[in-house]
Amino acid sequence: MVHPASERGVRIVASPFAKKLSKDLKLELASVVGSGPMGRIVGKDVEAAAAAVLSNGVPESRKPVAQSAPAKVSGTPGIELGCVVPFTTMQGAVSRNMVESLTVPTFRVGYTISTDALDHLYKKIKSKGVTMTALLAKATALALVKHPVVNSSCRDGKSFTYNSSINIAVAVAICGGLITPILQDADKQLQPHEYSTGTFSLSNLGMFGVDCFDAILPPGTGAIMAVGASQPTVVATKDGRIGMKSQMQVNVTADHRVIEGADLASFLRTLAKNIEDPKDLTF
User: Fold this and answer.
1) pLDDT digits over 231-270, tens only?
2) Ranges assigned E (strand) in the chain
3) What is the pLDDT of residue 179?
4) In sequence order, what are the residues at sequence separation of 6 or more whose Cβ sits closer than 8 angstroms to the Cβ of residue 139?
C-alpha cells in the first residue's frame, strides 16, 4: 500500500537520492506518491513518476527544436528522426564529467576469471535479495583492502590520497542519464547507502549479454572496472584434458598518474581468487 509523502502544510518526506533524482529530472516531489515507510518517497517512485510523464507527453526540456523539413518518425515511439534535442540537466552533467575525464592519462588491463563457484553461490542466495552485482562489489572491495593504491585518487594533479574507506560506485542507467549509487564501506557490508562519494567504480553490462567492454574513468576516482558476461568456455584442465568452465572478462581502466600496471595485475589476481573461491563473500 502506498501513502502520500506529505499532507497540506507538512514537509515532503523523501530519501536524499530521491531528492537528487527529482532535481536532475526536473520533477516536482509534491506530484510523486511515495511507496516507502510512512509514505516516504524513494528513488523508484521518482523514476516511475518520470516515466509516467514521458508516456503522457514529452516534457518542455526534451521537446525537439523546430526544423524546417518535415520530421521523420523512427521505429521508437516519441522519437523524430533528424530533430535536435537539447540535453537535460542530467545529460549535461554527464557530458561535463566525461569531458573532464579526458584530461586524465589512463591505461587498461584485462583479466579472465572463472565464475563456476560464484554462479553456484549466487543461485543459493539470490532468493534473499542479493544480486550478482552486489557479490562482485564485495569481491572487489575485499581485493581493494589488500591493494589500497587501486582505491586511491588524484584530484589536483599534484598529489594522491589513500582513501580510508572503500566505497564502490555502481553505474546504473536510468531514463535520460547515468547515476552511480554507492556501496559504502563495501568491504564490511552488502547493504547499499543511497548516495555518497565513490572511491572505485564498477560497471556491469554482463547482465545484457555484453562479453567485453571498456569503461571511462569517472573524475576523482582511481579506477573503474568493466564486467562482461559469464560464458561457457572450453579450457585445458590441470591433467591436460579438455573441459568446460564458465568465464568472464573484466577490464579495468585506471589513472596512470597513481596506479601502475603491476598494481592492477596484483589486484586482479586477488580479485580472481575471491571470485573463484567465494567463501568470504557472505557472512
Assistant:
1) 999 988 778 888 899 999 999 999 999 999 999 999 999 9
2) 3-4, 33-34, 72-73, 80-81, 106-114, 168-170, 172-174, 177-179, 182-183, 200-204, 223-227, 231-236, 242-255
3) 45
4) 118, 271, 274, 275, 278, 281
**Residue 256 among the catalytic residues:** yes
For helices 89-101 and 16-24, the axis angle rounded to 10 degrees is 100
Selection from 204, 219, 203, 224 nearest residue 108 by Cα: 224
Spatial separation of the C-alpha atoms in residues 169 and 183, rounded to whole Å: 6
Domains of the chain, start order? 3-62 (4.10.320.10), 106-280 (3.30.559.10)
Query: Which residue out of 3, 120, 147, 256 is catalytically annotated?
Result: 256
Asked if 102 and 234 touch (Cβ cutoff 8 Å), the reply is no
Q: Can you name the residues that pair with 169 across neighbouring β-strands?
A: 182, 201
pLDDT tens-digit readout, 127-179 = 988 889 889 999 999 999 999 999 999 988 889 999 999 988 887 654 444 44
Q: Is 57 left (phi over 0), alpha (psi -120 to 50) or beta?
A: left
Say how far apart CA 138 and CA 116 lie, in whole Å: 17
